[in-house]
Design a protein that fits this description.
This protein is α+β, with helices and mostly antiparallel strands. 28% of the residues lie in helices and 15% in strands.
């Protein structure tokens, strides 16, 4: 019974490591130019991690809102 429990614990450990390594990396890029529906981004040295045809998700930076102060 101990062997089964140890094997199960080890497999869960490796599964947890594998699933966390699958997540996408976060890159900080700036928009260089926009022409129609084509956007050119400058990602600096991190651009080598991207390949042509790779799908990316773009979030715009939001301005921080002022704190609401009450009575």
């Amino acid at each position: 019974m101990k062997k089964v429990t140890s094997l199960l614990a080890a497999s869960l450990f490796f599964a947890a490591i594998f699933t966390t390594s699958v997540y996408a990396a976060t890159l900080r890029c700036t928009v260089e130019k926009v022409e129609g529906n084509v956007v050119t981004l400058d990602c600096g040295d991190k651009a080598v991690t991207l390949e042509a045809g790779t799908e990316v998700k773009v979030k715009t930076a939001r301005a921080k809102t002022a704190a609401i102060e009450g009575c």
